[in-house]
Amino acid sequence: MIRTASSAAAAVKTLALSAAFGALALASAVSAQAADGVKIGILNDQSGVYADYGGKWSVEAARMAIEDFGGSVLGQKVELMSADHQNKPDIGSNIARQWYDVDNVDMITELTTSSVALAVHELSKTKKKIDIVVGAATSRLTGDACQPYGFHWAFDTRALAVGTGGALTRAGGDSWFFLTADYAFGYQLEDDTSKLVKQEGGKVLGAVKHPLNNTDFSSFLLQAQASQAKVVGLANAGLDTTNSVKQAAEFGLMAGGQKLAGLLMTLAEVHGLGLKSSSGLVLTEGFYWDLDDRSREFSDRFFKRTQRMPNMIQAGTYSAVLSYLKAVKAADSKDPDKVAAKLKELPVDDAFGRNGKVLANGRMIHDMYLFEVKKPEESKKPWDYYKLLSTIPGDKAFFTAAESGCPATK
Amino acid sequence: MTTIFGVPTAALYGQLLIGLINGSFYALLSLGLAVIFGMLHVINFAHGALYMLGAFAAWLALTKFGVNYWAALALAPLAVAILGVIIERTTLRRLAGLDPLYGLLLTFGLSLVIEGMFRHWYGSSGQPYAPPPQLQGGVNLGFMFLPIYRGWVVVASVVVCFATWFVIERTRLGAYLRAATENPALVQAFGINVPLLVTATYAGGVALAGFAGVLAAPIYQVSPLMGSNLIIVVFAVVVVGGMGSIMGAIVTGYMLGVLEGLTKVYYPQASAIVIFVVMAIVLLVRPAGLFGRGE
Predict the structure, then answer these.
(1) A320 within some domain
(2) Does the keyword NADP apply (chain B) (predicted)?
C-alpha cells in the first residue's frame, strides 16, 4: 500500500509538471505569428481561483479598448495575445520572457497575483519593456520594487487599507479582528489596515492566521465572535473570502451586530455569493458599473459581450490598454522610454479612471470608493449590488511618490 | 472562567463540535473511497470531482427545475451514481487487474476534465445555495451559536455512515460483496453476478460522494474547485484509517475532524497540515493504517 501511495504522489507530481509545460506550449502556439504591429499581452489566471476576478473577462475588456481606439495606432494593427500564468511566478515569467524575446510583445498587462506581478515587473525592467499591473494588490510594485517601465493601475493594498480600514473606523467601527490568509499578501493587507485603524483611533483586538485555500472557517469565525470586535476584517482573497463571508452569515456574525469588511473583494465575488450571504459587507473598489453615465455606457457594452458586469480589474484592464495606446499615439513611437514618459504626462480620463494621473513611481492614482453591499430587498435590478458610502480622493487613497518607498522618487 | 491551556472551555466545546461537523464530511467521503478501494482496488481520484458534481446537481436542480433541497438529497446522489455506472462500465472495467496506479491516473484525469468543464461553464467564484427553509437559523447553545443546518449535517452523516456499514458488514448482499473481494472467481462460480456487483459498488461509493456534495452545498460555495480542496485531506484520512477498512474510514474521519478543530484553536497555522503529520506518523508506526489488516 505504501508503495502505491508513493508512486501515486510521484504520478501527481509528473502530472503537475506536464500541465505546466502544456501551458507553455499553448502560450507559444497562440503567439507564433510574428509580424509588425503593436502587440499587447494579457497575462493572468484564467483557470484558477482568480478566473472570475480577472480571467478571460479581462481579455474581453482589453479587446474592447483596442476596438474603441480604432484597432490600429501609428498606422500599425494592434494585436492582442493572452496566456494563463496559473498563479505561478515561474510559469508567468517564462511566458513573459518568451513574449518579450521571441514574439516582440510591446506591453504586458493585467498580471493578477502579486508574486507573478513582481516577477514580471523585474523582467520588464531588464528587458526595457512596459508593463501595467492591474490585478495584483501589493503596493511594493510602485514601492521598493518600482522601476521606470512598470505601472500599477487599478488599486493596491494601501488604497484598500485607506478605504476600508480608515473610513470604516471613522464611521464608528473602532475595534477590529482579522481573519488573515497565512502568506505574504495576507500579512501585508493586515498590517496596512491595522496601521490605518490605529491612526484613526481604533484598536485591533486580535487576528487569526488561516491556511491558504481553507474551506471551513467556522473555527476562526467563532474566535472572531468571541473577540466581540465591532469589525471583522477579511485579509484574504478569492474563494477564501467568499467562503468566509458565506459562513459568517451562517454563524450569525452580522446578525450579532458585528460588521464584516472584505479587504480585497470585487463585484465578481459579491455576484458569486449572492446578496443573501453578502449583504451588509463593506468593501473598497475602484470602479462600479452603476456610478455614472460613462461607467454605465461601458459596462452595458461589456455586459452584451460577456453576460456579466465588469469589476475594477476588468474595467481597469480596459483603461490600462486604452491609456497605453493613447500614450503610443502621443509619443508617435513604440519606444518604451518615450511611451513611459507620455503615460506619466497624460491625464487618465475614461470609463474607469476619473481625475486620474500617473505618479513618477508608476502609480496611477484615481478616486476609490467605499461600498456597502445592499440587502436583497434594496436591489432593484440584476447586478444592483452596491450602495456608495463615500468617495476617497485619489491623492488620499494612494501613497505619494515620495512616501511610496520607491528609491527613484525619494 | 475555566480554561484549558489558556483557552476557555466554552470556546473549546464549540471547536470540538465544529470538528465533529467537519469530520462528518471526511467520514462520508473517505467511506466511499474505502468501499471502492476494498472492492475494485481503484484509488478513486475522481471522488472530489464527483462530490463537486453532487453539489452542482443540487444547485442546477434548484435553479433550473425548482427541485428543492430534500428531493435533491435523493436525486443528486442518484445522478452521480448513474455517472459512476458509466465511468465504471466504459473505462475502469478495462483496467481491472492492472496495477492500482492505472486506475489512479485514469480517475485523476477524469477529475481534471470534469472540473475543467464546470470551471468553463460556471466560472471559479462559485454559486450560492441557501439552506432549506426548515433548517435556517441557529440555536444558542450557551458556549456557541450552532447553525441548525450544521447540526443536521452531523445527524445525516452519522445515519448514512451507519447504514453503509450495516449493509456491508451485516447483510447478505454485503456478504456477497466481501466474498467477491476475497475471491471473485469462486463467487462467480456460485452463480453470483460479480461484474454487476462491482459496478454497483462503484456507483454506491460515488453516490456517497454526491450525497456529501449536496450536504456541503449550503455551507460552502458551490464551486468547481470545492472537491480538489478537500480530496487530498480525505485521502490522508483513508490512509490513516487503513485502505479499504469501512469502520476505519468512518472513525478516522470523525477523529481527524476533531483533531483539526482543536489545532485551529491552539495553532491555526498548522491546521492544514496536522492531518498529514498524523498520516506520516501512522505510516511509520503502522503502515497498514489504524484499522487496516496488513498485507
Answers:
(1) yes
(2) no
Tell me whether residue B235 is in a domain.
no
CA distances from A145 to A152, A406, B81, B167 (A): 11, 7, 53, 62
Domain of A122, in residue numbers: 35-155+294-362
Note whether residue A408 is domain-resident: no
C-beta of residue B58 within 8 angstroms of C-beta of residue B72: yes
pLDDT score recorded for residue A47: 81
Residues A189 and A187: their CA atoms lie apart, in Å, by: 5
pLDDT score for B246: 87
The alpha carbon of residue A4 is apart from the nearest alpha carbon of chain B, in Å, by: 7
Same domain, A97 and A61: yes
Q: CB distance from B98 to chain A under 8 Å?
A: no
Torsion A73-A78-A84-A85 (CA) sign: negative
Q: Same domain for A136 and A189?
A: no
Distance separating alpha carbons of residues A277 and A254, to the nearest angstrom:
10
Instruction: Report the domain count for chain B.
Output: 1
Q: Which residue of B has its CA nearest to A251?
A: B147
For residues A279 and A299, state if they share a domain: no
Backbone φ and ψ for A371, nearest 5 degrees, come out as -115, 155
Least-confidence region, from A123-127, A184-188, B158-162: A184-188
CB contact under 8 A, A216 and B18: yes
A304 in the same domain as A272: no
Domain of residue B170, residue span: 21-225
In a domain, B276, yes or no: no
- B-chain residues near A221 (CB < 8 A): none
Ranges of residues in chain B with a pLDDT under 70 are 1-8, 10, 294-295
Tens digit of each residue's pLDDT (9 = 90 or more) over A84-108: 998 889 999 999 999 999 999 999 9
What was the pLDDT predicted at B6? Answer: 66
Do A194 and A74 share a domain, yes or no? no
- pLDDT, tens digit (0-9, with 9 covering 90-100), for A35-50: 478 999 999 998 877 8
- Say yes or no: A274 and A167 in one domain: yes
Do the chains contact at B265 and A223, CB–CB below 8 Å? yes
Check whether residue A96 and residue A186 sit in a common domain: no
Shared domain for A227 and A100, answered yes or no, is: no
Which chain B residues contact residue A208 at CB under 8 A?
Answer: 268
A247–B124 C-beta distance less than 8 A: no
Burial A336-368 (b: 16+ CB within 10 A, else e): beebbebbbebebebbbbbebbbbbbbbbbbbb
Q: Please say if the pLDDT value at position A365 is more than 50.
A: yes
Q: What is the 8-class DSSP label of residue A356?
A: B
- pLDDT, tens only, A366-405: 999 999 999 999 999 999 999 999 999 999 999 999 999 9
- Quick one: pLDDT band at residue A29, thresholds 50, 70, 90? very low
Specify if A30 maps to a domain: no
Mean pLDDT, residues A191-207 taken together:
93
Nearest chain B residue to A268 by CA: give it.
B125
> What is the pLDDT, as a whole number, of residue A291?
94
Q: Domains in chain A: how many in total?
A: 2
Q: Give the CATH number for residue A219.
A: 3.40.50.2300
pLDDT of the residue at A331: 96
Question: What are the residues whose beta carbons fall under 8 Å from the beta carbon of A290, sequence distance 6 or more?
Answer: A296, A299, A383, A384, A386
